[in-house]
Amino acid sequence: MTEVTSTTPTNPLIYPYQQAAYDRLCAIARAYILTNFDRLPVKPRGNVFLVGPSGNGKTHLAAQVAAGAGMNLAYLPISVSEWILMGASQRGAPSTWPIICQFLIQSSRKEGCLIFLDELDKIGRRNQGDWTRYQTTEVFSLLDRRIPGNLNDPDGDRISDSGIADAEAVLKSKTLIIAGGAFQEIWDTPDPIGFGREAGTLNQTPDLQQLSEYIPHELSRRFGSQLITLPRLRENDYIDMLDRILPSLPPYWRTRYEKLARAGIPEATRLAQGPRYFEELLLEVAVQERLEISSPLQHQPATLAVSPSNDIDR
């Protein structure tokens, strides 16, 4: 059985460059899930597009919205690149739709659900073979809030019609879908389709019409016209992130980490490494410590490694 990830209100780790997107997504989640639109002649689209350069924290942000929107949200991350078709298998991996259906059934008593559909910009990028066409159809069914029939759960047992109906009710009434896309061409272009003069920096927020050359029209029309955008990081953003990270590091790592981080921030900015820069640097600090401990010239007592009681707050 698929495990449902429950979240409770907390103080999520949100960096300054993510704050505006986080606040907007939390407001959308509360408005869409907590408002009863059943008696109204129209219902808003519950599909939101989150756009930002690769490695800029879209997955992290979606998870933090589920944890910090002030509701008891169940959270399910899935990726287009890892989507497995119904009736197909890949190295024993179960099909994606039964996992989604089971997640929704288990979440029926939750206040709401958040599904993060990552790498949506890869839809239609490959040769339009049978796999791509069928995959696109299944993804569109999710965005249209329709669950296919005749589903078997990951154990191979048939999901009942009543179970599918219950899951579809949750999907239609109290599930927000956030779709992530990098659209790396936009951020790597010197003049990204008229948005700004400097490569990788947008002076205005792109809209779906401007993204139409990158995604099929059938995909863009399944979202509201407003996109949520994470900007490409500048040097000040890296410095802000470093200032947030340092207090959480063990004291015996802090000085070395800060020295290496500040020295490498200009290059990290140029290469658009994003938050992964700090993740990779953390490993490098640990590697250097291990090398010093194993060196025959090291006569001082070995520095204690991070213990479970002194975990690094990421």
Structure report:
This protein is of the alpha/beta class and 314 residues long. It has 2 domains: 5-229, 3-Layer(aba) Sandwich (Rossmann fold); 235-310. The chain is 41% helix and 10% strand. It has helices spanning 16-34, 58-68, 96-106, 130-143, 161-173, 184-188, 217-220, 235-245, 251-271, 276-294; strands spanning 5-6, 47-51, 73-79, 112-118, 175-181, 227-229. A 6-stranded mixed beta sheet has the order 1-3-4-5-2-6, sandwiched between helices. Helix 3 (96-106) links the parallel strand 3 (73-79) and strand 4 (112-118). Helix 1 (16-34) packs across helix 2 (58-68), helix 8 packs antiparallel against helix 9 (251-271) and helix 9 packs across helix 10 (276-294). The two termini are 29 Å apart.
Task: List strands and helices in order, with pairings.
Blueprint: E1 5-6, H1 16-34, E2 47-51, H2 58-68, E3 73-79, H3 96-106, E4 112-118, H4 130-143, H5 161-173, E5 175-181, H6 184-188, H7 217-220, E6 227-229, H8 235-245, H9 251-271, H10 276-294
Parallel strand pairs: 2-5, 2-6, 3-4, 4-5
Antiparallel strand pairs: 1-3
Brief account:
With 314 residues, the protein is α/β, with parallel strands linked by helices.
- CATH class of the largest domain, anyone? Alpha Beta
Distance between the termini: 29 Å
Residue windows where pLDDT falls under 50 for at least 5 positions: 1-10, 191-204, 301-314
Shape: globular
**Helical content class:** 40-55%
Give the structural class. alpha/beta
Number of domains: 2
Radius of gyration: 22 Å
Report the average pLDDT across residues: 81
Tally of DSSP β-strands: 6
